[in-house]
Write a structure and sequence with these properties.
The N terminus is likely disordered. The termini are far apart. Strands 8, 9, 10, 11, 12, 13, 14, 15, 16, 17 and 18 form an eleven-stranded mixed β-sheet that branches. This protein has a five-stranded antiparallel β-sheet with strand order 1-2-7-4-5, with no helix packed on it. A two-stranded antiparallel sheet has the order 3-6. The chain has two domains: about 70 residues, Structural Genomics Hypothetical 15.5 Kd Protein In mrcA-pckA Intergenic Region, Chain A, CATH 3.10.290.10; about 220 residues, Pseudouridine synthase. Helix content is about 20%, strand content about 35%. By secondary structure, the protein is an alpha+beta fold.
């Protein structure tokens, strides 16, 4: 429809400008503005960071446009994607980023050392389109725990998630490889967690003596030497699963800090498999699930062979 077609102008430095006259999503706007280019070509232009809205790079196809804004396409400018190590982005929108973190990578540095972390890499990622962008911590995974976690992209989202964490998070499921066969097929562990001077968490059975921690588990596979558990957190305390597995006499494989005597898989046997939550802005339920690492399944595959 020609009456909706944006006015454009071409400048010598290979930048094309378009004025927004009606509310629209960015992708549909570009399809109409660039009739000679196919949908895939337009997606590539977006992904390379060549599309700007009011002089700010935008890569999301559903970015909302309002009358009076200016869209520009910088044909000579390509924003190379940041190459990340141990981090895979599962979802990103204007408010948050959901990632899968590999075992061995810190979520965020706890000291002043210039160590590679998920946080540092995501900072570089969001600043590739705008140097003023930031990342905010919502929760953490231990260095040697792999799996799904999320970060906020603004302080408002961070506060909304942290203030309503128990209500917003609908599911947090872990996979734990523990020592020896767990005889009881499922169970619930309840205690109050405290931290000693050596920064090691431990359980108290006295009510209110520490932070209440509730862990539910089900046995997925088991043999004489190992058990693979599905673990659901009702609360999210520091080292909660690691302490509770020690409490029932089945420490997580490779967890020397909490009583493990073996490390046949070369890593901590803990993986954050599922994270489901209510988006703090849209109210929609988002659910992310990652594959169980092969190393956690290996003790059962080797036994079958």
């Amino acid at each position: 429809m020609n009456r909706n077609k944006p006015n454009s102008s071409q400048t010598p430095d290979k930048v094309t400008y378009f004025e927004v006259n009606e509310p629209a999503e960015l992708m549909s706007f570009l399809i109409e503005a660039l009739p000679s280019r196919g949908r895939n070509a337009i997606k590539s232009i977006l992904a390379r960071g060549q599309v700007y809205v009011n002089d700010k790079a935008v890569t999301k196809y559903n970015h909302p446009l309002v009358p009076g804004q200016q869209v520009s396409i910088h044909y000579a400018k390509v924003t190379e994607p940041v190459k990340m190590i141990g981090v895979h982005i599962l979802h990103e929108d204007d408010d948050l980023i959901v990632i899968q973190k590999d075992a061995g990578l810190l979520s965020i540095s706890t000291d002043k050392e210039n160590e590679l972390t998920a946080y540092r890499q995501l900072i570089e990622h969001v600043r590739s389109t705008n140097p003023r962008n930031r990342i905010y911590i919502v929760h953490r995974l231990d260095r040697d725990t792999s799996g799904v976690m999320m970060f906020a992209k603004n302080e408002k989202t961070q506060q909304a998630l942290q203030n309503s964490w128990q209500e917003s998070v609908l599911e947090r499921t872990y996979i734990a490889l523990v020592e020896r066969e767990v005889k009881k097929p499922e169970g619930t562990i309840t205690s109050w967690l405290k931290e000693n001077k050596a920064m090691v968490m431990y359980s108290s059975q006295r009510p209110e003596d520490g932070q209440l921690a509730i862990t539910h588990y089900k046995v997925m596979q088991a043999n004489r030497d190992f058990s693979l558990l599905e673990v659901n957190l009702e609360t999210g305390r520091k080292n909660q699963i690691r302490v509770h597995m020690k409490d029932i006499g089945h420490p997580i494989v490779g967890d020397k800090k909490y009583g493990s005597k073996i490390n046949t898989i070369g890593r901590l046997g803990l993986h954050a498999r599922i994270l489901a939550f209510e988006h703090p802005t849209t109210g929609k339920t988002l659910r992310f699930e990652s594959k169980i690492p092969d190393k956690l399944l290996r003790p059962f595959q080797e036994r079958k062979q």
